[in-house]
Amino acid sequence: MSTPVTQVQIPGIPVWKSGKVRDIFDFGDCFLFVASDRISAFDCVMPNGIPDKGVVLNSISAFWFDKLRDVVDHHLITCNPDEYPEELAAHRDLLAGRSMLVRKAELLPVECIVRGYLVGSGWKEYQRQGTIGGMPLRDGYRQADRLDETIFTPSTKAEEGHDENISVEQMREIIGPERAEEVMRASMNLYERAADYARERGIIIADTKFEFGLIEGKLTLVDEVLTPDSSRFWPADEYAPGQSPPSFDKQFVRDYLECLDWDKTPPAPELPEEIVRKTREKYLEAYRRLTGAELQSGGNS
């Protein structure tokens, strides 16, 4: 395995904003997003990363931006370092595969979660009170059951810590009723299109999270899209309701951490080599199934 890229530094160009995985650089009328190999769980970044994870995330997002471009506009300009600003030419090897140049957008202060299956925090809420996102569900669901209808459950966007679930009505108050309807419609259409495509390739997208912004007043899909970090990906041939299915996402890391005597506050424990290797394999397999290609050096297939 290659050495994971956990710190992204471009000499002479300061980081504008650093997230749990991505580092963002400001180039005036556009941003450069660089996906590191950092991995987080329970809102904590692990001290060691997953080799090639950033390349997988970046490449999968680029794949979906292109495939779903007829559903809603997106912010991607290019993933080709040869088309980046001139001052980045010397850093092509670092940026190839794990970066994208994007248009700037006025971010909407909500996250758009679409659920097709009852799992995770939704399953816990259902067990407690028979609802998901505050909406009543029928009795009789099992863990990981497919929902009778796909459900939209928004949340606020937190700079740090946990996002807070809100109702659709609260979202309407935050961004306005017309924009809220547009966001919900786009989110549901994106999920349904992607879920149908992925299922044909042996992946169930159990749920996912979208983010939107406005560019010249027009709704635009931003950030990452339908990746193993923003979604739950399950192998369709191993899916069985009534239990937590195996996954292609970082649930594998969460499951390992749940077995430790760790209180889920920093500092996070270092991941063993075996967990790193198996997690990397899951990310690569997700990319292979979705795109039908092998991830090559520099992220090109």
Automatic annotation (TrEMBL):
A molecular function (GO) term: ATP binding
Recorded GO CC terms: cytoplasm
Pathway in which the depicted protein is active: Purine metabolism; IMP biosynthesis via de novo pathway; 5-amino-1-(5-phospho-D-ribosyl)imidazole-4-carboxamide from 5-amino-1-(5-phospho-D-ribosyl)imidazole-4-carboxylate: step 1/2
UniProt entry keywords in alphabetical sequence: ATP-binding, Ligase, Nucleotide-binding, Purine biosynthesis
Catalytic activity: 5-amino-1-(5-phospho-D-ribosyl)imidazole-4-carboxylate + L-aspartate + ATP = (2S)-2-[5-amino-1-(5-phospho-beta-D-ribosyl)imidazole-4-carboxamido]succinate + ADP + phosphate + 2 H(+)
InterPro entries named in the record: SAICAR_synt/ADE2_N, SAICAR_synth, SAICAR_synthetase_CS
Gene Ontology BP annotations: 'de novo' IMP biosynthetic process
Enzyme Commission identifier(s): 6.3.2.6
Limits of the SAICAR synthetase/ADE2 N-terminal domain: 17-265
Family membership: Belongs to the SAICAR synthetase family.
Descriptive protein name: Phosphoribosylaminoimidazole-succinocarboxamide synthase
Source organism of the structure: Kiritimatiella glycovorans
